[in-house]
Amino acid sequence: MKMSDLAKIAGVSKSTVSRALANSELVTEETRTRIKALAKEHGYRMDARARNFRKRETLTIGVLVPMPSNSQGEPPATNPFVLEMLGALADELEKKGHELLFAKHSNRDPSWLREFVETRSVDGVIILGQNIYHDILNEIALDYPNLVVWGARMPEQNYITVGSDNYLGGKLVAEHLLQQGCKQLTFLGNTTCPESMQRFAGFKDTVETLVPDTELNVIDCRENHNDGGYRLVSEYVQANKPMDGLFAASDLLANRAIQALRSCQIKVPSDVRIVGYDNISSSEFMTPALTSINQNCRIAAQKLVDKVFARINGKQAESELIPTALIIRESTGVN
Amino acid sequence: MKMSDLAKIAGVSKSTVSRALANSELVTEETRTRIKALAKEHGYRMDARARNFRKRETLTIGVLVPMPSNSQGEPPATNPFVLEMLGALADELEKKGHELLFAKHSNRDPSWLREFVETRSVDGVIILGQNIYHDILNEIALDYPNLVVWGARMPEQNYITVGSDNYLGGKLVAEHLLQQGCKQLTFLGNTTCPESMQRFAGFKDTVETLVPDTELNVIDCRENHNDGGYRLVSEYVQANKPMDGLFAASDLLANRAIQALRSCQIKVPSDVRIVGYDNISSSEFMTPALTSINQNCRIAAQKLVDKVFARINGKQAESELIPTALIIRESTGVN
DNA sequence: CACAACCTTGCAACCGATTGCATTGTTGAA
DNA sequence: TTCAACAATGCAATCGGTTGCAAGGTTGTG
Fold first, then answer.
1. What residues form the membrane-spanning segments (chains A, B) (predicted)?
2. What would the DSSP string read from start to end of A227-251?
3. What pLDDT, on the 0 to 100 scale, is given for residue B231?
4. Is B216's pLDDT higher than 80?
5. Which end of chain A is less congested by CB atoms within 10 angstroms, N or C?
6. What residues of chain A score a pLDDT lower than 50?
7. Minimum distance, in Å, between the CA of residue B119 and any CA atom of chain A
8. Where are the strands (E) in chain A, listed by range?
């Protein structure tokens, strides 16, 4: 059944039906309700494709998610934070009457984005995890405005970002670990990822300022490690590198680190104090419960969605930081 | 730039351009390559909305994912298996040139599906987790054929499913735990979920057949528990209920159970042997590494996608089981 | 050479909504 | 009573591709 059929039933033109269903003031309140009732009664559903075509929109936002596959194409150790964010984004977009088109980067050529926006398959794009894509994003943003990225603000960037204050996060972690008496600190994270590096910078600067003679090492864990750093951490401690405090750039990494340490008979928090980042919902239930930097998904999703809609409507929008706070739990041995 | 512009540049009609870009045999090899070259040169991209409209398709498959929110709308304890599957589905769909429209159930009215397929926003739908939706799905499937569900085959169902052999899985777990000498078995799972119940049925039947006097209890963990059963398991052991073997209906539950037991000073596997289900990628790296039933996401995604395309093309398709095998690791204390 | 058969291309209708403008009907003021 | 102003509705063009059918051009055969 199409609109003209419904128009026939209602005894009006399809223009009127179109306006009635769109709640236009041009058509009488009475006619409007009558037509809506008829539409419901006869189970009329508007053809979304026709409307999208004519109105030159898709009511869809593309969300690009980092999911590196290893060489065998096996499922990766994906950050649960991504899934939580995805859920939050779906909720926010639904409120705005938009759908969420899911795409993973990894097997997609980076030109995916260009292809995608130029075929007008989506009205805007949200990217989770800028990672190593900063340069490509920066270039694409030059001629595609409806782009918002979850991640770190970078110097001279052409796109807008929403993210926690990574530098502050690193600072908070450093202060806390030092306060707990740690002397030999280690950072576990991906050194090619801007977010991760800003966290490290805040961590390092703070440590060097407060307790200059503190030992500070790095375990560089690139994304392609399917085990989330398990092996790297094991190797690190088996090499007898000293460590009494560990800052992991994500809760996923922190969790794997705890498992690796435990398998080496090292106790958390008594031997090594650990802090994660993301405050994923399961961090509260880990053993020991994980101290972490909170990044509120719901707030983040709201801001990401608001900004992408601002851009779609031709309005200005600025990069923004979301609240960033340390959540102290058992893994750093307080009380 | 639209197709007619490109046609003008090429000095042909837009019909020819359309055919050339669609690789139609009706147009000379030579003209085809020439037009494609021109298209690339001038950066022409076809308007996806126009094509979708005219061809009456969307090149998009809706994927409905279970993500229960608790009453405060906080992010749920989502099964990592879902995310792995989502990634695998994205890969499979990309191979077929389709996009993946993501939707979560929870805040969506169950009529979402109906709304969705009737507005022709997607060409087909894949549902992950049939859970408590069996009846609704069964009704919708009556007049919407392009529907495939990941889950358990049910008596008199109108939709097709792809899933592991849950009964067999439960049986394998029972055999293994009994073989390891367990006498007091517990099942941890959601008793309203068909998959879960089939796993339990296989487990129970096998236990009762092989060692009739084995004690067998159930911890009923509905989805709305945000902690994945952590509290329930803690309470269970604190009530001094005896247990030396636990079958958790998912790896997520198993992981939380291990954490809960550890916090009660109960050792895995020496005090309690544990088996999970799903064989998520992280189960290998848990401490102890988790014995689990393998469900291969890639194979599952392939079958789900194949079947939904079969339905779209009006072909027949049958429900199917994917290979189901026990992966033995440390959590059941072998060697 | 004439004509059939075929290959390549173009014409124009069509998909199902939306929307600018014209038209009809109604109200109120002069 | 007449006509302007306005409210409600209809007409028809339009969005940008796809495709059935017609038309033009070429080749081959009798």
1. none
2. TTTHHHHHHHHHTT---SEEEESSH
3. 87
4. yes
5. C
6. none
7. 5
8. 60-66, 99-105, 124-128, 147-150, 160-164, 184-189, 215-220, 245-248, 273-278, 291-294, 320-322, 325-327
Q: Does A230 touch chain B (CB under 8 A)?
A: yes
Please report the residues numbered 264 through 303 in chain B whose beta carbons come closer than 8 angstroms to any beta carbon of chain A. Answer: 281-282, 284-287, 297-298
Protein CA at B71 to nucleotide C1' at C11, angstroms: 61
Lowest mean pLDDT among A273-277, B126-130, B169-173: B126-130
- Whole-number pLDDT of residue B22: 96
pLDDT at B277: 97
Nearest to B226, CA basis, from B75, B64, B104? B75
For residue A314 the two structure tokens come to: 């031709």
Mean pLDDT, residues B16-37 taken together:
96
Q: How confident is the model at residue B89 (pLDDT cuts 50, 70, 90)?
A: very high
Under a CB-based contact definition with an 8 Å cutoff, are residues B66 and B128 in contact? yes
Domain at B60-164+296-323: CATH code: 3.40.50.2300
Residues B148 and B126: their CA atoms lie apart, in Å, by: 5
Confidence of residue B226 (pLDDT cuts 50, 70, 90): low
Q: Taking CB atoms and an 8 Å limit, are B259 and A286 in contact across chains?
A: yes
Across the interface, whether the CB atoms of A119 and B45 are under 8 A apart is answered yes
Residue of A nearest to B72 (CA): A298
Q: Is the CB of B56 under 7 A from strand D?
A: no
Do the chains contact at B48 and A104, CB–CB below 8 Å?
no
Q: What is the mean pLDDT of residues B186-197?
A: 93
- Chain B residues whose CB is inside 8 A of the A78 CB are 80, 83-84, 87
Higher pLDDT, residue B100 or B78 = B100
**Residue B72 touches partner A, C-beta closer than 8 Å:** no
**Quick check: do B60-164+296-323 and B166-294+327-332 share a fold?**
yes
- Which residues of chain A have a CB within 8 Å of the CB of B72? none
Domain ranges of chain A: 3-46, 60-164+296-323, 166-294+327-332
Which residues of chain A are within 8 Å of residue B102 when distances are taken between CB atoms?
63, 86, 90, 100-102
Q: Do A308 and A126 meet the contact criterion of CB atoms below 8 Å apart?
A: yes
pLDDT for position B272:
97
A132 CA vs D8 C1’ separation (Å)? 58
Nearest-neighbour CA in chain B from A261: distance (Å): 10
Q: For A209-213, B102-106, B242-246, B306-310, which range has the lowest pLDDT when averaged over its residues?
A: B102-106
Question: Which residues in chain A touch residue B299, judged by CB atoms under 8 angstroms apart?
Answer: none
Distance of CA A58 to the CA centre of its chain: 22
Q: Is B154 left (phi over 0), alpha (psi -120 to 50) or beta?
A: beta
Are A53 and B52 in contact by the 8 Å Cβ rule? The answer is: yes
What CATH topology corresponds to B166-294+327-332? Rossmann fold (3.40.50)
